[in-house]
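Lab notebook, bench 4. Still working through the backlog of constructs that have no structural model yet. Next entry is a single chain of 134 residues. Request: give me the structure tokens for it.
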Amino acid sequence: MPTKVSLALGPRRPLSRQTAWGCFTTNLAMPGFGSLVAGHACGYAQAALSVGGMIVSLVFGARFIVWYFANWSHLYGPDADPAAVMSEMWHFLKWPLLGFGLFALGWLWALATSFLIVSSARKAASEGVPPRLR
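Model written out:
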């Protein structure tokens, strides 16, 4: 019998500090997925940005590498014009750089969400602790 997989978020609940730090490190490795574990719907957008950026970078980066080695002699020949070479190289590099930017945007957004997750777990943990006696 096949296993059912659901992408629906469960109810958001207070997290322990240990679980919050687990979500934090998960967001560092795979942006968005730690936010989803913590119950934040913005994790879907973070994951889409990071995975989409990674795919764009890989596909167009491989295309750039193939083009670069195919045009090696043209780029570094004795009569190569540096301005023309940079213009031609920019034509192939702009898409991998866009992918890097998308990934970075998703990663930074996930990092900000991670700080909120850890902060809310710290507040929830401190609410259940009685005041310190002196």
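Notes after review: Residues 82-127 form the longest helix (46 residues). The chain has a mean pLDDT of 89. Flag for follow-up if needed.
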